[in-house]
């Protein structure tokens, strides 16, 4: 969504779903995984909205939807592409919205070639490096700049002669598309053969209902019904919403799943409008917050990219390209300087570049999956694990445990004695004999953590909403909050430094002066929030991010959170009851940015500033007062007139016209086409998962995403896919899912008696037909096998997982919940034992939602016999180090 609209957060808020005329839930079992927010779906249904659930499994969400549409796991782009084609071929798009608010009219350079021209890849693809040079993707008449100031790629691709080659840079992970300079050539009639609109029509022309049926297993009648519902409930007077979760993100084309939904919603005119938008459902209390103030290796707070070694030599080089572009990213210097002032205070000055050189520099991919390889190979010696349980909760858990076993030290902070803390004594490798406890040198420190009820702080949830939670009880014994741990760890490290080196001074001069309270010297969470909000030169709280300055007179720990303590009031702690305010409820908590609840809401009005319809009025231009007004904080310059046109060469926010709602994009428009910023294509294209028993029917010579991120290693071998020798060994599709009764990898739920009683054992969902085919008995045991491991589970024979007719054959799918491990009150094998590490190349997310496997009755073998079973399957499938590693399906390169 960052590449499509300008920000990676949900475009709308959960309560606004009640205003929808149609809600498509796909890639999510919202009723079970997000039950509190699902009340607004039920409210919409009560008011007459159509609710559609598209999912491989029939779930509690399906049970209350008007229609459940079963599809094959991993085929969503084909389905969404079919919907896009339906809209375009029937001219059902919202024309006035599309021509004015999207980049449909932009003309692409004549050297661009589509997947339809090059048999499954876009122009600029290097099959050896597995990456694209995006030079041919650019608009005619403008120059794109790699995301944020030309920062280097995380891994520099090389040519066959070993020279570094210029490549696309990854999406800024929620911070908008790349900037470009100048205005591209355009055709507002949308007739030019190389305008985005015509390229889009051509790209999806083959995504017809019969092709969708063949790829996804969705009948043409069901497809037509869904398409008709979305079209009938979109336009001037009606709006449709889409909600998704990790069922879309956990794929090797996960970013492109969301891009396809973004294209569909832009065509239908549903972005920025009440009852419309795309809701990215976050599964935990502050997942959104952990990307805003990031736990991601490549971002600084507020989605500012982490500087790269060699290219970002000083502050000037870091901000140069962005400052000369249109839109709000042109103010990046103010955002970054204010951040540096928040971190180094009086020590950050103009003379020392505001301590810019103290920021870490990226030298490559430092994501979790590269880190575990570094552990295995001896480059990473120590590890902090906080709020995660990689020994069972991460793809290819065996690889994770191998990394843990190679460490010198490991710190685990958790509520319970999770598997990551005990892998050295009861991990599966101890049983199989691959590891011996006596040989594992990792020194493990387990530190009890305080739960959220035992500490103050904020959650930032699904809809970008900050909500303060007050401590209910004091932590007991030696349990401590994460804030306490990091604050006191930092204090102790600083006490040991001499201050004689620049490295020491970088730590000693950090602003680390938070007040503490109580017997435990707990740091003040409100003081941290105030630092994040920011202050002016007089120490007064700032009210909004436009107040940030680049001269060092303001400080702000996260520019998008600026305003959360405006007027010295903790805005996130507001709890005005709903009946005392409007339906938008602006006085319940505080949403970034600037307490806007629907992003891009300028698009809820027509180019003249009038609501598209009275029924869907949200914000509008008030000529009498000379400002934008309405039910929400306008996501636009409040006094910018609809007829404002920037002069030639105007940059920054002033470079955005009064008719361009997407203010974080350098052209102010929603992007149907991404000229740079995504590493695997300007349009979403259907590719099969890394491991699939079905061939790519759209592009027979390009089975997988050619730019996916892969790393074949002895502990991470890939399986052959359809069309490759040995693929018949793994004939079934499996997908993982969540239960309401358990939480993530089970670290917070498997120790609770009532939840363990409600969901007492790992199970697999199979259809009656698959059960008959493989001799599986309801309630008995089954073993599921992939090329990496085998797990056992109880069998649940259910019609919730019916077979599909795909590519002329019957295809069976298996559902596996992923909450188990060997510790706790309810124990079982971990689903992540089955899954290999193959990643989306934009955001490094693993593919857990679509894989290929075999299943057979009975319990899995024990001890060394388990490894022999897996080895037998690998031998039968012919798996070696090259299997599944080709980027371009050239028979001379293919493994398998």
Automatic annotation (TrEMBL):
NCBIfam families: formate_DH_Act
Family statement drawn from the similarity comment of this UniProt entry: Belongs to the prokaryotic molybdopterin-containing oxidoreductase family.
Composition skew (Polar residues), residue ranges: 703-713
Subcellular location: Cell envelope
Requisite cofactors: [4Fe-4S] cluster
GO molecular function annotation: 4 iron, 4 sulfur cluster binding; electron transfer activity; molybdenum ion binding; molybdopterin cofactor binding; oxidoreductase activity
PANTHER family named among the record's database cross-references: FORMATE DEHYDROGENASE-O MAJOR SUBUNIT, TUNGSTEN-CONTAINING FORMYLMETHANOFURAN DEHYDROGENASE 2 SUBUNIT B
Matches recorded under InterPro entries: Asp_de-COase-like_dom_sf, Formate_DH_Act, MoPterin_dinucl-bd_dom, Mopterin_OxRdtase
GO BP term (any one): anaerobic respiration
Single GO cellular component term: cell envelope
Domain called Molybdopterin dinucleotide-binding: residue spans: 733-849
Stretch forming the signal peptide: none
Organism for this UniProt entry: Saccharopolyspora karakumensis
Region (Disordered): 141-189, 629-659, 702-725, 877-896
Protein name: Formate dehydrogenase
Coiled coil spans: none
Major location (coarse): other
All residue ranges annotated as the Molybdopterin oxidoreductase domain in the record: 15-421, 446-489
Protein keywords: 4Fe-4S, Iron, Iron-sulfur, Metal-binding, Oxidoreductase
Biased composition (Basic and acidic residues): 629-644
Keyword set includes Iron: yes
């Amino acid at each position: 969504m960052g590449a499509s609209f300008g920000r990676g957060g949900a475009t709308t808020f959960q309560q606004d779903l009640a205003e929808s005329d149609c809600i498509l839930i796909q890639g999510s079992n919202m009723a079970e995984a997000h039950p509190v927010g699902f009340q607004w779906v039920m409210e919409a249904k009560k008011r007459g909205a159509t609710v559609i659930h598209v999912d491989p499994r029939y779930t509690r969400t399906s049970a209350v939807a008007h229609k459940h549409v079963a599809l094959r796991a991993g085929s969503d782009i084909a389905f969404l592409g079919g919907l896009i084609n339906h809209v375009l071929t029937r001219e059902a798009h919202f024309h006035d919205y599309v021509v004015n608010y999207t980049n449909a009219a932009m003309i692409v350079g004549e050297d661009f070639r589509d997947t339809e021209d090059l048999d499954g890849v876009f122009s600029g693809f290097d099959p050896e490096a597995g990456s694209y040079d995006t030079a041919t993707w650019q608009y005619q008449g403008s120059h794109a700049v790699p995301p944020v100031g030309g920062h280097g790629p995380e891994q520099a691709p090389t040519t066959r002669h070993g020279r570094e080659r210029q490549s696309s840079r990854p999406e800024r992970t929620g911070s908008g598309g790349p900037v470009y300079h100048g205005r591209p050539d355009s055709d507002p009639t949308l007739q030019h053969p190389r305008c985005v609109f015509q390229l889009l029509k051509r790209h999806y022309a083959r995504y017809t209902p019969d092709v969708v049926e063949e790829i996804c297993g969705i009948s043409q009648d069901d497809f037509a019904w869904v398409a008709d519902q979305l079209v009938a409930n979109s336009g001037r007077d009606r709006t449709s919403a889409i909600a998704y979760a990790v069922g879309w993100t956990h794929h090797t084309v996960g970013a492109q799943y969301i891009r396809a939904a973004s294209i569909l919603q832009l065509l239908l005119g549903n972005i920025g409008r009440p009852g419309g938008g795309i809701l990215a459902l976050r599964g935990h209390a502050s997942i959104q917050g952990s990307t805003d103030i990031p736990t991601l290796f490549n971002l600084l707070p507020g989605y500012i990219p982490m500087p790269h070694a060699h290219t970002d030599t000083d502050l000037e080089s870091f901000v140069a390209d962005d400052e000369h572009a249109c839109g709000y990213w042109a103010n990046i210097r103010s955002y970054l300087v204010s951040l540096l002032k928040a971190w180094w205070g009086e020590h950050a000055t103009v003379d020392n570049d505001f301590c810019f050189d103290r920021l870490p520099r990226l030298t490559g991919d430092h994501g979790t999956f590269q880190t575990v390889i570094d552990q295995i190979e001896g480059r990473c010696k120590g590890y902090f694990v906080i709020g995660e349980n990689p020994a069972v909760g991460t793809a290819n858990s065996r690889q994770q445990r191998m990394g843990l076993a190679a460490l010198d030290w490991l710190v685990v902070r958790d509520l319970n004695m999770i598997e990551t803390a005990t892998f050295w004594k009861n991990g599966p490798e101890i049983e199989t004999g691959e590891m011996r406890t006596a040989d594992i040198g990792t020194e493990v420190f387990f530190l009890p953590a305080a739960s959220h009820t035992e500490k103050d702080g904020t959650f930032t949830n699904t809809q970008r909403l900050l909500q303060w939670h007050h401590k209910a009880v004091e932590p007991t014994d030696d349990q401590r909050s994460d804030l306490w741990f990091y604050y006191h760890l930092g204090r102790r490290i600083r006490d040991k430094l001499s201050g004689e080196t620049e490295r020491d001074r970088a730590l000693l001069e950090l602003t680390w002066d938070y007040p503490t309270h109580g017997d435990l010297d707990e740091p003040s969470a409100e003081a941290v929030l105030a630092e994040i909000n920011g202050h002016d030169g007089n120490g007064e709280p700032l009210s909004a991010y436009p107040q940030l300055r680049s001269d060092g007179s303001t400080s702000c720990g996260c520019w998008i959170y600026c305003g959360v303590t405006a007027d010295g009031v903790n805005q996130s702690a507001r709890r005005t009851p709903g009946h005392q305010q409007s339906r938008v409820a602006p006085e319940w908590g505080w949403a970034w940015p600037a307490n806007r609840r629907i992003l891009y809401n300028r698009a809820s009005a027509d180019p003249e500033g009038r609501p598209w319809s009275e029924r869907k009025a949200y914000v509008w231009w008030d000529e009498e007062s000379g400002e934008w007004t309405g039910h929400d904080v306008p996501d636009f310059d409040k006094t910018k007139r609809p007829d404002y046109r920037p002069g030639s060469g105007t940059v920054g926010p002033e470079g955005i016209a009064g008719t361009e709602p997407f203010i974080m994009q350098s052209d102010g428009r929603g992007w149907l086409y991404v000229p740079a910023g995504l590493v695997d294509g300007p349009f979403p294209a259907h590719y099969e998962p890394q491991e699939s028993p079905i061939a790519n029917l759209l592009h027979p010579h390009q089975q997988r995403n050619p730019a996916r991120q892969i790393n074949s290693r002895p502990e991470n071998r890939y399986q052959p896919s359809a069309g490759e020798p040995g693929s018949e060994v793994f004939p079934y599709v499996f997908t993982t899912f969540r239960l309401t009764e358990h939480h993530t990898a089970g670290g917070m739920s498997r120790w609770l008696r009532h939840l363990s009683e409600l969901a007492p054992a790992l199970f697999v969902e199979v259809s009656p037909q698959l059960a008959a085919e493989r001799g599986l008995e309801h309630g008995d045991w089954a073993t599921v096998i992939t090329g990496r491991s085998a797990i056992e589970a109880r069998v649940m024979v259910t019609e919730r997982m019916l077979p599909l007719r795909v590519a002329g054959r019957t295809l069976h799918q298996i559902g596996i919940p992923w909450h188990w491990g060997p510790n706790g009150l309810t124990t079982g094998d971990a689903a992540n034992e089955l899954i290999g590490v193959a990643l989306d190349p934009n955001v490094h997310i693993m593919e857990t939602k679509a894989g290929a496997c075999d299943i057979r009755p009975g319990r899995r073998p024990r001890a060394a016999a388990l490894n022999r079973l897996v080895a037998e399957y690998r031998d039968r499938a012919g798996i070696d180090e090259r299997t599944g590693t080709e980027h371009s399906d050239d028979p001379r390169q293919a493994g398998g």
